[in-house]
Design a protein that fits this description.
Layout (H helix, E strand, L loop, with lengths): L11 H20 L10 H11 L5 H8 L3 H11 L14 H8 L1 H17 L8 H24 L5 H10 L2 H10 L3 H4 L2 H22 L4 H9 L13 H13 L4 H7 L4 H6 L6 H19 L2
Length: 296
């Protein structure tokens, strides 16, 4: 998931020069003070701080969320979704909704709200299309990770979903910064190289700044290496790696079945040719549910 850069390619020398400038700027930012997404909504930061505070209870979290009407409505909507309201008893008050949804799902819906605000920001209009594509891919990965974690009992499904949604946060940061480097942004190959090399480090810096759980931080920063690792134990990074593989080939069953036997993360989890189609159908359904429940 690299985001979609414009197709026009300026002279290679200009792109290379700007790539070097951009990499130097990224290296300085990552090694310095904690970084955050540009123009990240203050309301989302307040909620994230409340969720990270072990002294926060449902009432305190609801009070913080309640200062932002759009976010509050999304939390109530998620609490009343089919997956979380199996008894068919809808809730209307935010405190009850917070208790029903749970902390990791609240982190997910808060991030979804924040990305929506970024996509609508005037200073990001020039990259609205690639930003939207990147976010839609993150939603698919979050849904797939949720399905895999639940089906194979690998991790709390909401934690896996959160990690999936965060899987592109480093790429999102790079996208918002790269618009200031038009020669680099206009050269898809050079831009993709920068994203591939730098997004894990950027993601780690942002997620640590948000005090995300170490398990989530490590998974987001390392899942791209999981496909080739020889270890036997299953980690959250494996869930993300296989989620990315499945979502990239949702509508290419032959290619997916050919790829699975070669993928060590898929083998560790147990995703194989005989069960992958059933999993793919569950993922497609979960994507729709996630979009509806989070307004994504």
């Amino acid at each position: 998931m690299t985001g979609t850069a414009p197709s026009a390619a300026p002279a290679g020398n200009a792109a290379s020069a700007q790539a070097m400038q951009f990499i130097q700027a990224l290296a300085t930012e990552v090694s310095g003070a904690p970084i955050n997404l540009p123009s990240y909504p203050e309301a989302a930061l307040r909620v994230q701080r409340a969720l990270a505070d072990p002294r926060s209870d449902a009432a305190k979290i609801a009070k913080v969320i309640g200062t932002e009407a759009v976010l509050a409505a999304r939390v109530v909507n998620m609490a009343n979704s089919a997956a979380r309201n199996m008894a068919g008893k809808p809730v209307a008050d935010l405190r009850t909704a917070v208790g029903r949804v749970g902390l990791d799902a609240l982190r997910s819906v808060t991030f979804s709200f924040a990305v929506g605000q970024l996509r609508n920001a005037a200073n990001f209009k020039s990259i609205e299309k690639p930003m939207t594509a990147l976010w839609q891919e993150s939603v698919r990965i979050g849904a797939a990770a949720n399905v895999l974690a639940r089906k194979f009992q690998l991790a709390p499904p909401d934690t896996a979903m959160l990690a999936g949604l965060m899987s592109g946060v480093g790429k999102l940061y790079i996208l918002t910064r790269a618009q200031k480097y038009p020669a680099l942004f206009g050269d898809p190959a050079s831009y993709a190289d920068v994203v591939r090399e730098w997004h894990p480090q950027v993601a780690r810096s942002i997620l640590e700044n948000w005090t995300m759980a170490e398990e989530v931080v490590n998974a987001v920063a390392s899942f791209e290496d999981a496909h080739a690792e020889l270890r036997e134990s299953v980690e959250l990074a494996d869930v993300l790696a296989v989620a990315v593989l499945l979502t990239s080939l949702l509508d290419a069953p032959d290619a997916l079945q050919a790829q699975l036997p070669q993928d060590r993360a898929a083998l560790r989890i147990g995703v194989m040719a005989h069960n992958c189609q059933e999993i793919v159908e569950e993922i497609k359904s979960q994507v729709d549910q996630l979009r509806r429940s989070m307004g994504a």
